[in-house]
Amino acid sequence: MKRLIAPLALALAALPFAALAQERMAPVTDPATLTDCTECHMAFPAGFLPARSWQAVMSDLKNHFGENATISEESRLKITAYLVANAADAGALSARASSRILTGITADMTPLRISDLPWWKREHNGEVSQAEWDRAKSPANCVACHRDAERGFFGD
Amino acid sequence: MNRLAFTLAALLAAAPAFAQDANDTSAAKLIAQYSAEAGITASAEAGKAFFLANQTGGGADTPSCTSCHTADPKAMGQARTGKPIEPMALSVNPKRFTDTAFVNKWFGRNCDSVLGRECTPAEKANVLAYYSSL
Q: Is residue B9 part of a domain?
């Protein structure tokens, strides 16, 4: 009996984590990134874009999705280094998580929006009602629906 | 450990809230400074007209101050990202215009987003006079 219980308990204990693993992304911990990037939106986890995307975004802050989001050069370099080091393809993610985030993104593609990634679209399209989009106002507003997004949890 | 991590995260999350706390200037001081630079007497009326106007030259999504701040400076605004913006009127938000670096940063960004250029000292003096008059 005991021999049966242990594996069963293990299997059950592992279940929620397996589910959670899909919905969790390490939140930003870098102080410079948190300070500057949260002025207009939550600090999106670095693991949601490949390094080349972060480089592209951070090298044109004067035209940041229609806004001038310029910051000091010192902060820009610090933040870029952090985002690149923790990017989806930087080795900070598990191979499984990385390949999921980068599904459909070939080496010659440099997506600038997390919401342009195929996995993101698959997760949101059809599932999010117009009323929910109206309330959130923008796909950049993760916390409108994912209340613990800033702590790295993106469950429904 | 968890509690430490949580406290740290809370502190870090709160950091931007302190960004406006340098307390090294005030709306009155800035109005005096900008007015002197422009050689004008600041006008709340002109500031209101500037605040409400539809401008050209900036980003397509931000033709006016009101695009994000709404037409009522006493009300909360909302960035295009959905993030709330604290009111601009000093009567409801006395923390406004108390941090030189913060003021310069946001005039710099937002004038460019709305007008495609820097705001003139006269425009800044007038709009601050408007925010102070409410």
A: no
Span B60-108, pLDDT tens digits: 999 999 999 999 999 999 999 999 999 999 999 999 999 999 999 999 9
Q: What is the CATH number of the domain that holds B32?
A: 1.10.760.10
Question: So what's the pLDDT on residue A17?
Answer: 42
Between A and B, how many CB-CB pairs are < 8 A? Answer: 59
Report the candidate in B100, B88, B93, B106 with the shortest Cα–Cα distance to residue B24.
B100
Chain A contact set for B19 (CB, 8 A): 35, 39
pLDDT attached to residue A92: 85
- pTM score, whole prediction: 0.80
What's the DSSP call for residue A24?
Answer: B
DSSP per-residue string spanning A92-148: SS-HHHHHHHTTT--TT-----GGGSHHHHHHHTTTS-HHHHHHH-STT-GGGT-TT
Which of B80, B105, B118, B119 has the highest number of chain A CBs within 10 A, making it the mutation to test binding with A?
Answer: B80
Enter the DSSP assignment of A86.
T
Q: Which token pair is A100?
A: 């999921």
For residue B5, being part of any structural domain is answered with: no
ipTM of the complex: 0.77
- Bridge partner residues of B78 (DSSP): B84
pLDDT number for residue A72: 92
Decide if B71 is inside a domain.
yes
- What is the number of domains present in chain B? 1
The verdict on residue B14 lying in a domain is no
Residues A122, A124, A129, A130, Cα dihedral to 10°? -100
Residue range(s) defining the domain that contains residue B126? 24-133
